[in-house]
Structures are given as C-alpha cells and as structure tokens.
C-alpha cells in the first residue's frame, strides 16, 4: 500500500471513531410519539434557554457543567441518549465527550431545537406563578 492510501485509511477510521446516530427532528418526533422504548432527552443549553422552551420530558444539564462531570449522566449509559442544544455546537461537544467516555447509544439531532421549532413541534415552557 502506498503512503497516501494508508493515510486515507487512518483518516476515515479516525473520523468514524465517535460516529453517533443523526436523526432529523421528524424522526425524533416519531420516536417520541410512537416508541415504547424510553428515550433520554438531554438538553445541554443554559438553564435560561431550557426554561424558555424545551422538548417535553427533557432533562437539562448545561454543556459546561456536563463536560466537566460526565458522571452526571452515567445512569443513562445503557439507554438511548438524545442530545440537543440550540443549533448543534454545544451538543456536538457533549456527544464527543460522552462517546470518549464509553457511551455507545448517543443520538444527535439535525438542526437541534431551532429545527424542532421551525417544524412547529411543541415546546414546553416553565410556568412561573
């Protein structure tokens, strides 16, 4: 094998090392509505963003907290963990950290909560009395 072929093989193997599933918001909505298997919806936005509107049954752990303490989600290691943020940047960082720490069933949402909102899917807001 030539040197360039070996480098290409290494590149492609490395780029897929932390390959996770990528779902559209339509796929996520269908899974939420029809699946009997539980999904863990992990919103990694700030608390303020979470309170302004989230996908029903989501849990919130801001990405900067989660990145420094992955153990906060260790109880979900064997479950399907769906990670989202506003547009995808923070979720990508969290997904990479999760997969480096042994999480194998992690799902990324294409377009994150922006795409969810654009599809007019429901958001739950925190009601303050």
Automatic annotation (TrEMBL):
Which species is the source of this protein? marine metagenome
In Swiss-Prot or TrEMBL terms, this protein is called Rhodanese domain-containing protein
Recall the taxonomic lineage recorded for the source organism.
unclassified sequences, metagenomes, ecological metagenomes
Name a Pfam family for this protein: Rhodanese
**What PROSITE patterns does this protein map onto?**
RHODANESE_3
Annotated Rhodanese domain ranges read 35-125
